[in-house]
Amino acid sequence: MTQLQKQFEVLRWASLFLEKHGRESRVAEILLQHYLGVDRHQFYMLMREPVPTEVVDTFKAAVEKHAITGIPVQHLTGYEMFYGREYIVNEHVLIPRPETEELVQHITQSTDTSREKPLTIIDVGTGSGIIAITLALEIPNSIVYATDISEDALKVAKKNAKQLEANVHFLQGDFLQPAIEKGIQVDILVSNPPYIAKSEAPELSDTVKDFDPELALFAEANGLAAYQAIIDQAPKVTKTKATLAFEIGHEQSEAVHALIQETFSESTIYTIQDINGKDRIVA
Ligand code: GLN
Q1: What InterPro entries does the annotation carry (predicted)?
Q2: Strands, E, within the chain: which ranges?
């Protein structure tokens, strides 16, 4: 009879295999914990216990697939955390990034929670719905809209909103077009649009380039086309005194400032750095 492998042995094999392929060995833990269906604490308690053969097989196949193709671990487990909540993700949506948590935090922190009037918010290009859903849950007395051109992305976003019991009005269409058609007027417009120039594609890792949707990553005009389109449409949906907040590529601050300035000449524009000290938000 073959001896069952202990958890730490399976983990050690995986960590070495991943390292050999230039991948992060931490992925081994995330995947094994996922296939065992245990939480972090239980996982550490089980370290010297044997792993059921079927789990070993599934786990090894996943580790090999990740190591060789670069498939994101989130596509294997089917979820990612954002702002302390779990979101369903798949190949139709951008995997949530920690930088985007900073955008959301900036908005929640600069919102007056004691105000009496409801606040109307729109998230443009919502993808998995992370921004819209988090704002709907974190800002009391808010009415939140979210748009996306992709039906497949909206399916994911709607599932997430349902699971997290967030009240978000999803609209299908190009940037702000569906909001314009409905005559919606907002206090806050937020977006993490595609902002990578096509020419930068070769510099991206295979995990991003081959698996995040192209629609979510790339924009024409050196990565500025989506900002341009949203800002052009923005006067039709924003109230007289409104806030615009964008996630940006770290070298796009000046260009996005200029785009906002052109359309909203009376505005106060500022840039905020992320925790890595890179320009990340223009508002
Ligand atoms: N708003 C979503 C996010 O921030 C999707 C962004 C995108 O697809 N560019 O993750």
Answers
A1: DNA_methylase_N6_adenine_CS, HemK-like, Methyltranfer_dom, N5-glutamine_MTase, PrmC_N, RF_methyltr_PrmC, SAM-dependent_MTases_sf
A2: 79-82, 85-88, 119-124, 142-148, 168-172, 186-191, 196-197, 218-219, 238-247, 271-273, 279-282
108 membership: H or E segment, kind and range: helix 98-109
Residue 103 domain boundaries: 83-282
Closest listed residue to residue 158, CA positions, set 136, 183, 182: 136
Q: Which residues line ligand 1 (CB under 6 A)?
A: 94, 96, 100, 125-128, 130-131, 192-194, 216
Number of folded domains in the chain? 2
Residue 76 is assigned to a structural domain of this protein? no
78 belongs to a structural domain: no
Ligand 1 centroid, distance to 88 Cα (angstroms): 13
Residue 77 forms part of a structural domain: no
Cα 173 to Cα 216: distance, rounded to the nearest angstrom: 14
Per-residue pLDDT at 112:
85
> φ, ψ for residue 272 (rounded to 5)?
-120, 140
Residue that has been written with the tokens 């990034």 in this structure: 97
With contact defined as beta carbons under 8 Å apart, do 64 and 32 qualify? no
pLDDT one-digit tens code per residue, 177-202: 999 999 999 999 999 999 999 999 99
| Distance set, CA 245 to CA 104, 230, 257 (Å) | 9, 11, 11
39 is in an annotated binding site: no
Helix/strand/coil for 243: strand
State how far the alpha carbon of 222 is from the alpha carbons of 14, 194, 217, 228, 253, in Å.
Answer: 40, 11, 12, 11, 13
Give the whole-angstrom CA distance, residue 107 versus residue 256: 18
The CATH code of the domain that includes 117 is: 3.40.50.150
Q: How confident is the model at residue 116 (pLDDT cuts 50, 70, 90)?
A: confident
Substitution candidate for ligand 1 out of 126, 150, 211 with most atoms within 8 A of CB:
126
